[in-house]
Design a protein that fits this description.
- By secondary structure, the protein is an alpha+beta fold.
- The strands form eleven sheets. It has an eight-stranded mixed β-sheet with strand order 30-29-28-44-45-46-41-40. Strands 6-7-8-9-10-12-11 form a seven-stranded mixed β-sheet. Strands 31-32-35-36-42-37-43 form a seven-stranded mixed β-sheet, covered by helices on one side.
- A hairpin with a 4-residue loop joins strand 25 (780-787) and strand 26.
């Protein structure tokens, strides 16, 4: 062995001299300011002594874990010899290993690895520095096979880790991080000098103690750098800079996300609060950080607000594809620092040899490692190798507990209690005799069903897995591109040659091949491009959804589960119970009726084939179509899902950060701070800017926006209006400005599925609020907001205050722009621009709710607010939709006026006035017993009664009158009964609704009946209207959607059963908006479709209101008590009983009045 090492040293020197002569830029200069580092990571070493006799248990473990423990000795030797091979004989060589040194922190594995590394260090003179990874400390997964079976092994404490590796970095350190007494988080951090010009800071980023986030001194996958540790790092960096040293850092967890989806989807691999940590590192002078953990090859950079850059150099695992190590040269002149990096295959200098003496052909990563890591033959093998052992172990546990039902009980899943709690009773029993109870009868039926599952599936794990594999094969054989996949065969050989177009499984293999190796740049390959474009367009997503639905609903549920499990109603009445004989009779009758086939599949088919079953419910597929697909699953949803898939996968096959192909063999030079390109997307420029009307719309306006966590200045520059304002860069600070900021946390799901998501991820921001008061009524201003010190300003916007009188004005009424992807909000932008083109003097926007698809998804709000500049030019007055029903999202994103005291978690109700119009905005998520809560109803009544405005408009989300899918929802029926008589009594002229994404307008209504009203045709500003003169009822409108989700309308014969037929119904496949102009005694309403960016008039009407007095005013003038009594009675009126009679009565009166009016005319 010594001769071998000597030979390798000699060869290394000769090669180094040859390369120097040839001027190949592989070798750093050997002066005082240059060093060379060898780097490999995630060794996951497993000591030979723990492998036992390498028998059946060990082989099964290797198969399940898919790690290369059977070649880890050779991999380690090759990596060490490779580092030596590339060494420079000047004492300036170092080896860094950024964590996960062992499989799972086995104490004996640590000792064996430390001994091997110490021997290398002693033989070569190359100092070794290690840090711990998430696998290495306090890991209860430590195991051994010394006795031929898998058993727990001694795990390693942080104190033991430090003692074991005391000669592998800790001995060279002159500074150590010491946690507070009793704490352990970060305790394995240390710092040491590398030569005369460099300082290495080794950072323990792992979580393994209670004080650092672990629930019980057990390791976690996640990484965290606490405040005290961060302060120590900054202090170490400051001392290094004072000494004129360049700083290099090493930690296990990624400092910066290495793919767009990492921080949210693979969040356990990047340190918590990474942006703040990375900013701190960069500003402290730490520009190069070596990390591991993610097992892939990548380099990424991050630039702080001050223009300082930090690179995160991620080195892949040594014991899995692609099995590479790095050599890195640093050179510095004290001002500029250059990093040259080369990446080496593990068998670049000598072959890999297994524990059994097998020699693997080059390149090892393709001839053996890829299939060993991800499964032989492709992704199907990987999936089955993952779920196979998991299912077998689970089924074995179920069998050990005595069956599925008992197993669930052992996991504290008490089915009986769940059912009893849901029903609120255990059922009917007389004394000890069960008549029909959950505990006696229902549980007997469930136990029978559980026994069937045990027999058919649990007790036959191999057969179950075979069936599962057949289903998985269908999905993986789905064709994602018409173009063939030739890429896999180029790297992996002829076994990966395919016929026909590229399948999902083939494509997944390609993704694994390219992502883990780094320098991802295959997005231009025909089959890759076609796949991504197909998903992004929604076309492939729809096809895959249909296949997935077939596999799950038809193949799994109908043809497998329902076909193989029997409906045994006799099991409801077990032996030794009062009705056992009846149970046997019931079982016999059922078998006779079902023709001897008691399967759930036959039962359901028999029921759904009965003549009484309505159209659209004849099969499970038809039911799904009727209730879900036809109602809600618009093509925009496939575009959204497909867009999410394309974005996530695209981030794995193409990488231009810091630049293209910069992951393996690269050169970066740090020359000092760079110019920061601030954008809305990075939240350095104001993002989510929105303007709201203030308490007094004539003098007050509020502007809010978001920035990244580090920008706390809330500046506004306010000038007299100009079409080309000349801003000075100096913020306005006079008495009109009340500026504030607060730290807030927003979250979004890493896997965004639209109306719901998975893997919530939180990010810190600053919410800025500027409340302007004392403005001049009826005046326009130019403004911008941002950070004056940084010079990071928004674009210019326009503020225009209300006149405060009864001057005419126009506002826009929109609803349901909700979408999942940014490109879909372009539709909302088109709608707003079309509205502004038609009415340039429109003053503000009233939204009837569902601004976004998922209210708690901060990305949806980003897409929404940043979709159009008009948020900075017109106040936006929102309503809480059902998609904003939790998380206080209206309160979090808007500053609303006149908000009474309330719980705002489900939304906000509030009111405001504008030039003689009073707007009352309701929260239809605040529901109790299918009606508005008593508190909201009381506020609504008081709010409208206290207003002396001529016009009264109510805005709500869940439409009381609609021809959409929710027209008969329980809460809608309840609110219709609660409000339809009350609102006309209060003098409400118009109700603006949302929710159903359709267009409908009622006639004037009172108590769910159409009231008589005189009408005539009038002309206003070149448009013809049908005007209603002093209607003594309320008109309800629902304005369609201003977004991409256009829903189907219901047949009018269905809605006729619940309320009078609407006066106007518009079927539109286009987004819509409405404009409402109030001019003195008249209100003019126009509804528009937006077709190719242009507004097309779709409906219109007008109201003339000469009598300002509402019924409540007349009554309250005489008696407040009587007024309150009437108000209470009307809100409790049961219109189900009264509306048809009332409608007939009003209809007769209307005909008489129309006849009279025609005679008068």
């Amino acid at each position: 062995m010594n001769f071998k090492k000597f030979s390798l040293k000699a060869i290394s020197v000769i090669l180094a001299l040859a390369m120097l002569v040839a001027c190949v830029p592989m070798l750093a200069s050997a002066d005082e300011a240059s060093i060379r580092l060898g780097v490999f990571s995630d060794v996951h070493y497993y000591a030979d002594s723990l492998k036992g006799d390498r028998g059946e248990a060990w082989q099964q473990f290797l198969f399940e874990r898919q790690k290369e423990y059977d070649v880890n000795n050779s991999l380690l030797d090759n990596a060490l010899d490779g580092v030596l091979h590339n060494a420079v004989k000047n004492g300036q060589d170092y080896l860094l290993i950024p964590g996960d040194l062992t499989k799972d922190g086995e104490l004996e594995a640590h000792k064996a690895l430390a001994a091997r590394l110490e021997r290398f260090q002693a033989e070569t003179g190359i100092p070794v520095f290690v840090t711990n990874g998430n696998h290495d400390v306090n890991n209860s997964n430590a195991c051994t096979f010394e006795n031929g079976v898998k058993e727990p092994a001694d795990k390693t404490s942080p104190e033991q880790f430090r003692e074991i590796y005391k000669n592998l970095g800790f001995d060279k350190a002159d500074s150590f991080f010491t946690p507070k007494p009793g704490n352990k988080g970060g305790m394995l951090s240390y710092a040491a000098n590398l030569g005369d010009a460099y300082r290495l800071i080794v950072i323990d980023s792992c979580i393994y103690s209670k004080d650092n986030g672990s629930s019980g001194d057990e390791h976690l996958t996640d990484g965290r750098i606490g405040d005290d540790l961060l302060a120590w790092i900054v202090d170490e960096a400051a001392k290094a800079k004072a000494d004129g040293r360049e700083i290099i850092a090493m930690q296990h967890h990624n400092l910066i996300p290495h793919m767009d989806i990492e921080d949210a989807t693979f969040f356990a691999f990047v340190v918590d609060d990474w942006q703040r940590i990375a900013d701190t590192y960069a500003d402290a002078g730490i520009h190069h950080v070596f990390t591991g953990h993610l097992h892939s090859t990548d380099v990424v950079d991050h630039i702080s607000d001050n223009g300082e850059v930090v690179y995160d150099i991620l080195t892949p695992t040594l014991t899995g594809y692609p099995n590479t190590f790095r050599t890195v040269d640093f050179s510095t002149d004290g001002k500029n620092t250059t990093m040259k990096m080369a990446t080496h295959d593990i068998d670049e200098y000598q072959p890999v040899i297994s524990d059994y003496g097998e020699v693997y052909e080059k390149p090892f990563k393709f001839t053996y490692s890829f299939e060993r890591t991800f499964g032989e033959g492709g992704v199907e093998s990987l999936i089955m190798n993952m779920i196979g052992p998991m299912i077998k172990n689970l089924f074995a546990d179920i069998q050990a507990e005595g069956g599925l039902i008992k197993y669930l009980a052992s996991k504290n899943i008490d089915i009986e209690k769940i059912i009893v709690d849901a029903l609120g009773t255990n059922g009917l029993a007389i004394g000890k005799a069960d008549i029909l109870t959950v505990s006696g009868n229902v549980m007997s039926f469930i136990n029978d069903l559980g026994a069937q599952v045990d027999e058919v599936y649990i007790n036959q794990p191999d057969l179950t897995l075979k069936k599962a594999q057949a289903l998985i094969e269908q999905l993986l054989n789905f064709e994602v591109s018409k173009y063939p996949n030739t890429y896999n065969a180029q790297l992996l050989g002829d076994n990966y040659k395919y016929e026909g177009g590229c399948t999902l499984g083939q494509f997944a293999t390609t993704v694994l091949l390219t992502y883990y190796a780094g320098d991802e740049d295959i997005s231009g390959l025909p089959f890759v491009k076609d796949t991504l474009e197909g998903f992004d367009s929604g076309v492939t997503a729809e096809k895959f959804f249909n296949l997935l639905r077939k596999v799950v609903v038809n193949d799994l549920v109908e043809d497998e589960l329902l076909a193989n499990l029997d409906f045994n109603p006799g099991a409801l009445f077990p032996k030794n119970t009062l009705f056992y004989v009846f149970g046997r009779l019931l079982q016999s009758i059922t078998e006779t009726l079902l023709g001897g086939d008691n399967s759930f599949a036959n039962l359901i088919d028999s029921i759904l084939s009965l003549p009484v079953v309505p159209d659209g419910y004849g099969s499970i597929d038809e039911i799904i179509d009727t209730l879900v697909v036809d109602e809600y699953l618009t093509f925009s949803q496939f575009e959204s899902w497909g867009g999410t898939i394309a974005w996530m996968v695209g981030s794995l096959v193409s990488d231009d950060k810091p630049e293209e192909k910069s992951d393996n063999d690269v050169v970066f030079t740090y020359t000092g701070p760079v110019k920061v390109e601030a954008t809305k997307e990075d939240f350095r420029l104001p993002s989510n800017v929105v303007m709201n009307l203030g308490e007094d719309s004539a003098t007050e306006v509020t502007v809010t926006w978001l920035t990244k966590y580090s920008l706390t200045d809330s500046d506004i520059e306010l000038l007299p209006y100009s079409s080309s304002p000349r801003f000075t860069g100096r913020p306005t600070t006079d008495s009109r400005v009340n500026a504030s900021s607060e730290a807030v946390t927003r979250s979004y799901p890493g896997a965004d599925l639209g109306i719901f998501g998975l893997l919530p991820y939180e990010t810190d921001y600053v919410l800025h609020t500027v409340k302007l008061s004392g403005l001049e009524p009826g005046t326009k201003y130019s403004y911008r907001v941002g950070d004056a010190e940084k010079g990071w300003w928004s674009e210019a916007g326009v503020i225009e205050t209300a006149s405060g009188g009864n001057d005419p004005f126009t506002f826009f009424y929109l609803s349901d722009p909700q979408a999942q992807r940014a490109s879909h909000y372009e539709t909302y932008n088109e709608v707003v621009k079309a509205a502004r083109d038609m009415y340039p003097d429109g003053k503000f926007v009233v939204s009837a709710g569902d601004q976004v698809d998922l209210g708690t998804n901060s990305k949806h709000w980003n897409y929404f607010f940043n979709s159009t500049d008009e948020f900075m030019n017109m106040p936006f007055m929102p309503t809480a939709g059902n998609h904003e029903k939790s998380g206080s999202v209206l309160k979090s994103n808007f500053t609303l006026p006149n908000v009474p005291e309330q719980d705002e978690d489900s939304g906000t109700y509030y009111s405001y006035d504008y030039n003689g119009v009073h707007f009352t905005v309701l929260n239809t998520n605040d529901i109790v017993d299918n009606k508005l809560s008593d508190a909201q109803l009381a506020w609504l009544t008081s709010d409208i009664k206290s207003s002396d405005a001529k016009w009264k408009i109510v805005v709500l989300h869940k439409a009381l009158y609609s021809n959409g899918s929710h027209y008969d929802d329980k809460e809608v029926v309840g609110m219709r009964s609660q409000l339809s008589a009350l609102l006309p009594y209060l003098g409400v002229d118009l109700v603006l609704q949302g929710h159903d994404h359709v267009y409908l307008r009622t006639d004037a209504m009172k108590a769910n009946a159409v009231v008589p009203v005189k009408s005539s045709t009038v002309d206003y500003n070149g448009f013809i209207y049908r005007m209603k003169h002093d209607p003594c009822g309320t008109i309800y409108t629902i304005c369609g959607t201003s977004g991409v989700k256009v829903y189907a309308t219901k047949d009018v014969t269905a809605t006729d059963k619940l309320f009078p037929r609407a006066e106007a119904i518009v079927n539109s496949s286009h987004p819509m908006f409405s404009s409402i102009t109030v001019d003195g005694d008249r209100l003019y309403y126009n509804a528009y479709k937006v077709v190719d960016g242009k507004a097309v008039r779709a409906d219109y009407f007008a109201i003339e209101k000469l009598d300002d007095k509402a019924p409540t005013d007349s009554v309250s003038d005489k008696s407040n008590a009587i007024d309150n009594f009437i108000t209470s009675i009307l809100s409790k009126l049961n219109i189900k009983i009264t509306w048809k009679f009332t409608n007939v009565f009003f209809g007769v009166i209307n005909r008489v009045m129309q006849l009279v009016w025609s005679v008068v005319r």
